[in-house]
Design brief:
Helices cover 37% and strands 15% of the residues. By secondary structure, the chain is an alpha+beta fold. Helix 4 links the parallel strand 2 and strand 3. It is globular and about 60 Å long. The model has no long low-confidence stretch (mean pLDDT 97).
Length: 472
């Protein structure tokens, strides 16, 4: 059993742990061994917590043996993105400036995972300060895509995406400001969920842009994501953006039944300038839902034409405000790419920022109206597949296009609106995964998870898994 534990999902491992057929110590050691062995290949980790993890696994094992099993994630070893605070541990944000920063408290999501019996194995790399989509980090080196080690894993949660896809972490959490959960999930062929803004507390997460930031699951399967959301969701008075709404049993809403589901397709924005092979894979998955009883309606969202501008002005301005002091006093300690972005963030005026918020309000209203007509919107997660490490462009139908502008086009609107969005794998192009995005009404995570599950059940990746020791 131990030889392939790193390939198994939480939904496969949890019953073995609950039935005492698998030891949490054995599982943790196996995952850590694989993570350390894979580190020279994919460079996903910032730090390993082997000693603490194995000690915690011993405690968890006793709890389970004594009949104190707490649920799906009890005894599951996982590493988290390195902008989530661990008490008395270094949290670097994969930066030079915060390389020695130690928090005096756990992030709320870390507290909740501890209470659920998760075993923490380490911290995962990210694009510096979460402000980028390549995870080509100037201070700690690039994270590599497990499907092709010459390709980016996406970002900013690239370490989480690569680790989960390879098997170096059973599951993980990412953060998402313009797509940073869904981008690496799509690029690495895993499931990534950005919950509704306010559904999950951000207390103890270093911010990028406070009105756009989210924390959410990055997992091997849809049910893994549902189980993880059940743990981390909920109101927290310490986060002023958190919303006091009832949490749900998302796992129980996953039936795979999509009969009567109405899918909205927005051709003008979400299917505009998409790589033909990516589009083919996404439309094939939409057809699979139709074959299961769903319906498709074409919808228009006119204000989406301004979404990229509004997202850019908002994120640049808020990020620059957070880093203003360091930008003034030690600009040389930022990576070149993000220093430029922070400098650009000093340029928009208050009028620009407030106009962006007006556009944002209009987009939210139009999405709200659309969800009176349809149940979910479906689009490609990305219009392209993962590009080569070091390139600033992507290839779209043979044309070289700007990487950043294109890779966040379809993910950014859900950050502006705060609506829940899920990326699930739906196929391949050039042996690289393609992701499909499902956007739903506010606080309807169970709905989009169920649609994602229906797609997952068609087995679009044909049981293929990356092998980092074979794809040099």
């Amino acid at each position: 059993m131990t030889t392939d534990l790193h390939l198994k999902s939480v939904e496969e491992l949890a019953p073995l742990l609950e039935a005492k057929k698998l030891s949490p110590v054995e599982l943790t050691k196996s995952i850590l061994d694989f993570a350390e062995e894979s580190q020279p290949k994919i460079n996903a980790f910032m730090a390993f917590y082997r000693e603490e993890a194995l000690a915690q696994a011993q405690i968890v094992e006793k709890e389970i043996l004594n009949g104190q099993y707490r649920g799906m994630y009890h005894g599951i070893p996982m590493a988290l993105k390195d902008n989530l605070y661990f008490k008395d541990k270094i949290t670097t944000m994969s930066s030079k400036i915060h390389k020695d920063f130690v928090s005096g408290y756990d992030a709320t999501v870390v507290e909740k995972l501890r209470d659920a019996g998760v075993i923490f194995t380490g911290k995962l790399s990210m694009h510096e300060y979460a402000w980028g989509i390549t995870n080509n980090n100037p201070h700690y080196g690039p994270v590599r895509n497990p499907w092709n080690l010459e390709k980016i894993p996406g970002g900013s949660s690239g370490g989480s995406g690569a680790a989960v896809a390879a098997g170096a972490s059973v599951a993980s959490l990412g953060t998402d400001t313009a797509g940073s959960i869904r981008i690496p999930s799509s690029a690495c062929g895993i499931v990534g969920l950005k919950p509704t803004h306010g559904r999950v507390s951000k207390y103890g997460c270093y911010p990028l842009a406070w009105s756009l930031d989210h924390i959410g699951p990055m997992t091997k399967t849809v049910k893994d994501a549902a189980g993880l959301l059940e743990i981390i969701a909920g109101f927290d008075h310490r986060d002023p953006t958190c919303v006091d709404v009832k949490t749900e049993s998302y796992s129980q809403q996953i039936t795979g039944d999509v009969k009567g589901l109405v899918i909205g397709i927005n051709e003008d924005y979400f299917f505009n300038r998409v790589d033909s092979d990516v589009e083919k894979a996404v439309r094939a998955s939409i057809q699979s839902l139709v074959d299961q009883g769903a319906k498709v309606e074409t919808v228009r969202i006119p204000s989406l034409q301004y979404a990229e501008w509004a997202e850019l002005v908002t994120s640049l301005s808020e990020a620059a405000a957070i880093h203003h002091s360091d930008l003034q006093s030690r600009p040389q300690d930022f990576g070149d790419d993000i220093r430029l972005l922070f400098e650009l963030g000093e340029l928009p005026s208050a009028v620009d920022y407030l106009q962006a918020q007006q556009v944002r309000r209009q987009i939210k209203q139009e999405f709200s109206q659309i969800f009176n007509q349809v149940d979910v919107l479906i689009s490609p997660t990305l219009p392209v597949v993962a590009s080569t490490i070091g390139d600033n462009f992507a290839t779209l139908n043979g044309e070289k296009v700007d990487l950043i502008d294109n890779i966040i086009r379809f993910t950014g609107p859900s950050n502006l609106t705060g609506l829940p969005a899920l990326s699930v794998p739906c196929g391949f192009k050039d042996n690289l995964p393609v992701g499909l995005q499902i956007i739903g009404p506010a606080f309807k995570e169970g709905l989009i998870l169920n649609v994602g599950y229906a797609i997952e059940q068609t087995n679009p990746l044909k049981n293929k898994k990356p092998n980092i020791f074979a794809n040099l």
